[in-house]
Each structure stands twice: as structure tokens, then as C-alpha cells.
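Dissemination and training. As part of the outreach component of the grant, students in the summer workshop were shown how a complex can be specified as a set of sequence lines and then modelled as a single object. The example used during the hands-on session is reproduced here so that future cohorts can follow it. Participants entered these lines:
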Amino acid sequence: MVCQAATAEPDIALGKRLYEQGITADGKEVTAVTQGDIRFSSTQFSCANCHRRSGFGSSEGGQFVPPITASYLFNKREWHRSYLFDKMFKEEQPASFWAKIRQPRVRPAFTSETLARAIRQGVDPAGKPMDLLMPRFQIGDADMENLIAYLRTLGTRSAPGVDAKVIHFATVVSDGVPAEQRGAMLATIDAFKEWMNLDTRGDLRNPQFSPHYRSDLIKGYRLWDTRVWRLHGKPETWSAQLAKYYDEQPVFALLSGMVEGSWAPVQRFCRDKQIPCLFPNTELPAKHTDYYTFYFHRGVALEADALAASLKDQMMEGDRVVQLHATGDAGERPAQAFIEALGGKENMVDQSFADEQALRHRLDDLLAWKAKPAYLLIWPGTHGGQVVQWLVEHPEVAGEIYLPSSAADALPDTLPAALEARLYLTWPYEYPGAYHPRAFRVRAWMRSRGLEIPYPRIQFDTYYALTALQFGLAHIVDHFSRDYLIEYIEHEAENALNPGTFPHLSLGPGQRFASRGAYIMRRNSLDKYPLTRASDWIVPDSGEP
Amino acid sequence: MSFQNENPSLSKRLLSDLALPLRVSMLALAVSWAWLVPASASDEDSLETIRAELSTVCRHKKPVEGRFKKTQMHVRVPDVTLIDSHGKPIDLASLIEDSSTVLQFIFTTCTTICPVLTVSVQKVREQLARLDPTLRFVSISIDPEQDTPRRLRAYAKRFGATGRWTFLTGDRHDIMHVLKAFGAYYPGNNKMYHKPYTYLKVGKSGRWERVDGLMGSSEFIAEYRRLMQRAAVADAGR
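and obtained this result:
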């Protein structure tokens, strides 16, 4: 049976599974030894853990993991500084790192035999021992053939959406998005692209502009083409519309974006086409993330979880909670998240409303209660204005009243004192007035380009997506791998690009939400900033593992 | 970085984020073209260390000593309350000050060095506990907002952690205080630049040894045994 397996055609898909998940063709783990004598299972960490899904390697804590795409493995080793620029100069590296990348140690191209020896015994084709961090895997012949067959394909497919001169991106917008908000987002993207391309054209006209290292990087220069993919009609039809746009002009990544309702259909499209989707402006990300889409936060579900965490601490026995929510994702998702986070509906009345009339009915019913509820939560969906108007007329309907951040815009400049005293908002953003040096820089950039800033959060977040992409492309140089771009964004999201819209933005391998908490805010009309913090930053212990 | 134009070309963009000392070292690099000029080292890496390491590598000899950089340090553990993997508040100082401790900083989605750091503790834990029954193992997340107690529990389970092995998360600022107290704060405020440190302490003293590097099981045990012997000698001398 072993002979049969060994002589069969290698299975690239099984090799990929072994590379990424550490699982053999017959569904088992393999054992490996690292650091000389630490035995572990391949599912504890697989090849892709260090060399990453893209195969372009990584650098962490001074440990340099070399690229192992097919062109690196099956050619003589040659370091080129343009590909090591970030690792050398943007990260702090120990002496051992510098020694490793400077040593004039070359090796011939791997063959299947020498590669199998390297994986099993940690010896390179020149006969030299490899770093002890590189595990020595105990892999059988058939699985080794599958793995090597996969490595021969790794990094060989050029990603669609980029050619010798231009790299293409698209921004998805749908019907139903407020035109002013959409316009502010698109104007930010246009201004960024315009200045970016002006600069790039200037350097491309003079490719020998630097006698030393800068010209090394020019091979990665591409003009940006940004286009808008407008979606019409029901979300069920979006997939076909997106596919049509993509067929007309494939794009390397989706950038920012704004749709009415859930982002899930766009995320599905990105997953199917394996397109990075960078930081859409949405409060309704897909319920379950996947590899390709990055979000700022979990949206209204995060707000509900943070509120539940806060109320759990302060609720007294017998306190009653009334939760009213709109039908549809914007109301149902936070309402459900709140119930789950609170551990059930005990002492809770949970009611939905489908339209303005039903909302009015639900709210008026509250006036008939003999004892007013301790807490009233309303997830108004698109009915924020009506809810606020009703609360202004009946401010004492409950002990404390909670609305989501999306209702902030519907609040009038002044509120009745009785309402101001009991009204709170969940707020998954930085609090107004917080100091972020980069916010000044971003604002100055926009103003100096004559860009109006009617929607600072949308525009600043869009700017973050643009700069994450810009720096990501600078890092990958001309290795136009979408996976490599994603890995860079995971690695560098925490660097100093936060434009001040969130207290802290960070990612890591596999992470897809850059911010994970929320404040509870209260209105204070007399304060310089009408919304002030009523809680610390709350990070709920919920959401996807 | 130019204030007028924040869309510099690719190379300018790369350069723009670099601090002046780095630009100077890049200039040296550019002039030399070949990468043979020793770059400016971090605060802790002396030029001699670099030369020693380079010469070691150039002779293609595996260093017998010096595969790890060891630093003796006194740590004043900050007065912070962290959260364990069951959501229970833990006073860090009370947890570690009165017992022998092995401490590491990790995060659960880390791909390269944290799994090796953590699995090294998994492999030596029982043997070290036999040597020193008071020994406590502590893994502190440096990505606390992502590593909620639920995620820490899953990570601990992946490495078979039980008993006197505590996984901690907490407020981002509290964790930063702890990192700074242990001299483990990373540059660029980016956890991806963290170092593979393991901190070892024998007994109640505030004296720690920091090992910079990934140890194998036998190296780990030998190092702890050495520290125990040193502590015993110090006790006998009192």
C-alpha cells in the first residue's frame, strides 16, 4: 500500500493541506522536533505558521523565516535587499538577524531529494545545517511528495488585477447609501489616488533617480486605478453584479466601501474570488469572518456585547430590561447578541417592530406600565430619528435608556434635562476630544488638497484603508501575491497608521477585526464635546474565537 | 514625513517612516552597497556582540555559549490586576512574587515564536516542577483585547496547560506596564516586534534572569537547574 501511494501522482491539494494545516493524506498529524529536542505535533504549528500561507516567509521577534515560494526554493539562493527592506529597517532586529542576512552563505537550488532532506533533517542543499527553529518533520514518502508538489506551485500564479504598469482596485457601493456619505468616501479615495499617481509618474519618468537603493524598488511601482462598483437592487443579486464587474476588469483588492445592510454578500464574493477586501465602512460585517475580509470592528453586535458586559456589572436583582429592536439585521443582530451575552431573557421583555407605526405602538405601550423598567434598550435600525423624537416627548419612560452609536446623529443639539440624565449611547469608536497625533496629519493632508471633510470618521477610516494598502504594496514590492498583502496588513495594522477614529487598531495572524471594544457614552450638552465617556473601554469576552 | 504630500513615491514612502538614526545607517549601507557594514545596533546590542556573533557565523561554527542572550534583572512587579483564562481577577504581584516563576509574554494568534515558547514550557513543566515544587508558570498575553479569557482557555488547552500554569490577559495599559517593568516592551508599539523572552526566577527574590532566544527542553532545564544552584549558593553564603 505504501508503494502504491508513493508511486501515485502527487496530490497538490493534499500537499496544500499538509502545508497549511499539518494534516497528512490519511488525516493524521505528523510529529516534528524544533530547537533540538522539542517534539510537537504538526497541528500545533504547521509550515504555514512561519512561512505563511503566501510562502513569502515572515519575521518575528528577530527570527527571520525565509521565503519558500517555488522561485526561491528551486533556484540558487540570492538575497535581494529590496525584498528585505522592511525587515531590515522598519523592525528592530537582534545581531543574530543581521548576521544571518549578511552572511555570504549561498546554496544551490533545491531538488525534490534535497528538499525532502531539509524538511526531515534540517540540512540545506549545500550540506549545511539549518536554523534550529526550522522543525525536523517526520513525514512519509507519499505525503512528502504531495508537499513538494504543492511547494512547486507556491507563489507561481500571478494575481489578477495587476499588470506591468497598473494595479486595479474597486470600491463597492450600493443603492440606499446616503449620497453625501458615499461622496465623501469616494472623494477621499480619488484625492489619494491622484496624488499617489502624480508621485509615481514622476519617479517612473526617471527610473535611475537614485544611484543606490531607491531605484531597486521601482520594479514594484504601479499606477493605481480605482473604480467604483455600484450595486443595485436586492443583496441576493449582488453576487452576479460583482462577478460581472470583475469579469470586465479584475481587481487586486477591494478598498473601503459602503452598502446598505450587511456586508456579507460582498465578503462571500471576496472569498470566492480570493480578493483582499480592506476595511469597508460597515456596522454589519458578516456574522462569520473568513480569510479575505478585514473589518474595523464587529459593528452593532459589538455594541450589544459591550452593553451587556456593562449592565451585568450594575444590574440589581429584579431589574427589568425592555429591549425593542427593528426587524432586519441592524435591529435583530444586536438584540440577539445582547440576549446571548446576558445569558437569556430572564427579566427581559424583547419586542420587535417592522415599521414606524409598529415602533410607535411599542413605545406607547411602555407608558402604560405601572412600574417603569430599569433599562430600556432600543436598536432602531433606520428609525433612529423617530425613536429620539419620541424619547424627547417621554424622557422618563425608563430608569436608563440606551441607544446605539448610529442614533447619535439623530440627537438634537439640546435635550430635555430629564432625558439627558438617563440617556446613554454605546460607542465603539474613540471618544470625541481624544488626542491622536495622526488625526492632525490626516486632517492636514485632506485640507491641503482642498478635500472637504463633512464625514470625518468615514473619511479618516477610508484614509486608513488607503494607507494600509499603500504600505502593504510598498512591502510586497513586485511580489504581487494577495495572500502576502494580507499577511503584511495583519503584521503592520498596529503600526502608527491609526487616524484617531479608534483608541487602538491592531491585527495579528488570522485576526479580522482591528478594534474590539466600546465605550458607554452620555450626552452632556454643556460640555465642549456633547458626548462624554460614562465607562472605561469595554472589551467583551465574546465574538468569534 | 513631508507634511504637504503624504503620498510620496514608494521609496520615499518607505524612507519617510524611518527615524533619523536609521536613515543614517541606511546611508552608510547605500554607500557601501554590499551589506558588510555593521548597522547601528539596538540599545542592548553592543557592537562587540554583533562582531562576536558575525565572526562565529562566518567560521560556520555553532556557538556553544551565547546562543541565548541572558540578562540578570531586578523587576518591580507593577501593582496591576490581570484576568486569568477563567475570567478571574489576579493580582500579578501576589501571584509571582512569593514563588519561583517561569514567565513568558505570548499572544494566541502569534504564528512563529509564541507556539515555540509555549510548547517549550509544556515540555519542561513536569520535570521542572519535580525539581522545584513551588515553581509557577505564567504566560501573559501581549494582545489582551484579542486574547479574551475564552481565547486564552482555548490556547491553554492546545498546549495541555493545567495546574500551576496561569494564562493572563487584562487591560491593554496594565499589560503595557508589565511589559515595561520586565523590559520587554517592543518598538513601534507593535506586538509583532516582540522578542522571544523567557523570564526565570528562583524563590521569592525579585531577581530574574531573562533569556532572549528559543530554548530547547534540555537547555531550558539546564538553565533553571543552574539558577537553582546559584540561588542555593547565595542562600548558603548569607
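The CA atoms of residues 91 and 468 of chain A lie 17 Å apart. Students were then asked to discuss how this feature might be tested experimentally.
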